């Protein structure tokens, strides 16, 4: 089934119950029949909500942010660096050389270099 509204938005329902919505800005929303949702906006950003309430955000630079349903957050930027925030507030930063910086939930900082050694 295809539905056009008077703003030129288009809604497509496929036989599985999935729904695709195209609005007139070029954005696209895809709902599948598990409850997952994918949103493409017209800047090429992409947001994916799965049915566990996890959320993945890809921005236009290629960075990726993952929020899981415990409140943890993982950020991958387009250099290959990775930031992990867990639900306690601790934060781990991996740069693209393999070095690692760990901030615990008290704000303390631990630095590991790319060989795995700890820098004090």
Question: If you had to describe this structure to a student in words, what would you say it looks like?
Answer:
With 120 residues, this protein is mainly beta. Helix content is 0%, strand content 44%. The chain has a 14-stranded antiparallel sheet with strand order 1-2-3-4-5-6-7-8-9-10-11-12-13-14, with no helix packed on it. A hairpin with a 5-residue loop joins strand 12 (100-103) and strand 13. The protein starts with a strand and ends with a strand. 0% of the residues are buried. Residues 1-6 and 41-45 have low confidence and may be disordered.
Short description:
This protein has 120 residues and is an all-beta fold. The protein is 0% helix and 44% strand.
Walk across the major sheet and give the strand order. Answer: 1-2-3-4-5-6-7-8-9-10-11-12-13-14
Continuous helix count: 0
Pick out the low-confidence regions: 1-6, 41-45
Helix-strand makeup class: mainly beta
Average pLDDT confidence is 55
Strand content: 35-45%
Sketch the topology as an H/E string, one letter per element: EEEEEEEEEEEEEE
Q: Give the fraction of residues assigned to helices.
A: under 10%
Strand-helix topology:
Elements: E1 2-4, E2 10-13, E3 19-22, E4 28-31, E5 37-40, E6 46-49, E7 55-58, E8 64-67, E9 73-76, E10 82-85, E11 91-94, E12 100-103, E13 109-112, E14 118-119
């Amino acid at each position: 089934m295809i539905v056009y509204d008077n703003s030129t938005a288009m809604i497509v329902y496929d036989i599985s119950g999935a729904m695709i919505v195209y609005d007139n800005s070029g954005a696209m929303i895809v709902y599948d029949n598990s409850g997952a949702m994918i949103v493409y906006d017209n800047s090429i950003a992409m947001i994916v909500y799965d049915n566990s309430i996890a959320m993945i955000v890809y921005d236009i630079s290629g960075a990726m942010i993952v929020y899981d349903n415990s409140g943890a957050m993982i950020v991958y930027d387009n250099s290959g660096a990775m930031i992990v925030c867990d639900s306690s507030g601790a934060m781990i930063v991996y740069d693209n050389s393999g070095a690692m910086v760990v901030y615990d939930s008290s704000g303390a900082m631990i630095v590991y270099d790319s060989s795995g050694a700890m820098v004090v």
